[in-house]
Amino acid sequence: MSEPTSQAAVGADQQDATATTRGLDTRTTEHGEAKVQTVTQTYATTVEDLWEAVTSAERLPRWFLPVSGDLRVGGTYQLEGNAGGTIETCEAPHRFTATWEFGGQVTWIAVTLSPAGAGARLELEHTAVIDESNPEQQEFWAQFGPGATGVGWDLALMGLGAHVATGATMDPAASEAWSVSPEGVAYISECSRLWGEASIADGTPRDQAEAAAARTTAFYTGQPDPTAPQDGAQPEA
Question: What is the per-residue pLDDT across 102-113, written as a single tens digit (0 to 9) for each?
Answer without folding.
Answer: 988 999 999 999
